[in-house]
Amino acid sequence: MVKVCCAKNCRNFWIPNTNLTFHTFPWSNKQRLEEWMNVVPSKSRIGKYSFICSAHFND
Ligand SMILES: [Zn+2]
């Protein structure tokens, strides 16, 4: 499966040998999930297999 960032206006996708990492949404942690939802403009459908790239996180 190709990992593509689901954030609006972000066209990052996973390619080897980059610092970019991709994360699935923390469905089991509602508090964190809400934080991530705030980071990601929820224009697109966020599903179980949606990814968000590390470009949206400061650490
Ligand atoms: Zn992204």
UniProtKB/TrEMBL annotation:
InterPro entries per the UniProt record, alphabetical: THAP_Znf, THAP_Znf_sf
Source superkingdom: Eukaryota
UniProt entry tagged with the keyword Metal-binding: yes
UniProt GO MF annotations: DNA binding; zinc ion binding
Pfam families xref list: THAP
Residues annotated as domain THAP-type: 1-59
Keyword Metal-binding: yes
UniProt keyword annotations, A-Z: DNA-binding, Metal-binding, Zinc, Zinc-finger
Protein's name according to its UniProt entry: THAP-type domain-containing protein
Provenance organism: Ooceraea biroi (Clonal raider ant)
